[in-house]
Amino acid sequence: MQKVRTVRPEIEHIRRALAPSGGGSSDYDLNPNVTLPAGRVLRPAAVLIPLIYVEDELRLILTKRASHLKHHPGQIAFPGGKVDPDDAGPVAAALREAWEEIGLPQDAVTVFGQMSAHETVTSYTVTPVLGLVTRPFVERPEEGEVEEVFSVPFKHVSNPANFIIQGRVWQGMSRYYDTVPYGPYYIWGATARILRALAERLSS
């Protein structure tokens, strides 16, 4: 990747947008008719929302999961995963996972905020951690897990007008979800829902 610049007004705008308290998001937000399981236990997880300047454009780094995986094959995702017992919280987990999944060194990321947790249908409570990549790095997709590492313009995924609600029948019921397609990449589900929550904060 090309030269990275670290001080920009738009980063300060994002940082300020994260400051107010507020409720988290959920895979169930668009499906109020779904009854949540009683006594469900949510497992902690974290994802990194890595932003990087490529020349003068702020971009978001994402991954495409390998097509053979049992869970979420081929889906677009943030680097991230469950919080391990050895992790010192969600920030540490997000940085560790980004190193393991895409080869992003932890010391190349300046963390500047996090969002309220997102609950998934797979019973995880996911903390999104936002960070700015402050120097170039060599992308190294995790073998067998990550099919592709790519980036999209942040202005596209931070514009609420670019989000579309779509639906499909799952287990005999209509389920609805956010999408924010970009070129050949169909960004949907939890990734799109977290991005929409961020976009709404930035535009309010």
The helix/strand series, from N terminus to C terminus, equals HEEEEEHEEEEHEEH
Number of strands: 11
Helix content: 10-25%
Q: How would the global form be characterised?
A: globular
Determine the N-to-C terminus distance.
32 Å
Q: Any idea of the CATH class of the domain at 9-27 and 39-159?
A: Alpha Beta
- Unreliable segments of 5+ consecutive residues: 1-6
* Oligomeric state: single chain
- The CATH topology assignment of the domain at 9-27 and 39-159 is Nucleoside Triphosphate Pyrophosphohydrolase
Radius of gyration: 16 Å
The pLDDT mean sits at 89
Write the layout of secondary structure elements.
Blueprint: H1 9-18, E1 25-26, E2 43-54, E3 57-65, E4 76-77, E5 80-82, H2 90-102, E6 109-114, E7 118-119, E8 124-133, E9 146-153, H3 154-157, E10 164-170, E11 173-179, H4 189-203
Parallel strand pairs: 1-7, 2-8
Antiparallel strand pairs: 2-3, 2-5, 3-4, 3-9, 6-8, 7-8, 10-11
Offer a few descriptive terms.
Nucleoside Triphosphate Pyrophosphohydrolase, globular, nine-stranded mixed beta sheet, two-stranded antiparallel sheet, 4 helices, alpha+beta, 33% strand
Could you characterize what this model shows?
There is one protein chain. The protein has 204 residues and is of the alpha+beta class. The chain has a domain of 140 residues: Nucleoside Triphosphate Pyrophosphohydrolase. 21% of the residues lie in helices and 33% in strands. The chain has four helices and eleven strands; from the N terminus they run αβββββαββββαββα. Strands 1, 2, 3, 4, 5, 6, 7, 8 and 9 form a nine-stranded mixed beta sheet that branches. It has a two-stranded antiparallel sheet with strand order 10-11. The longest helix is centred in the C-terminal third of the chain and has 15 residues. It is globular. The N terminus is likely disordered.
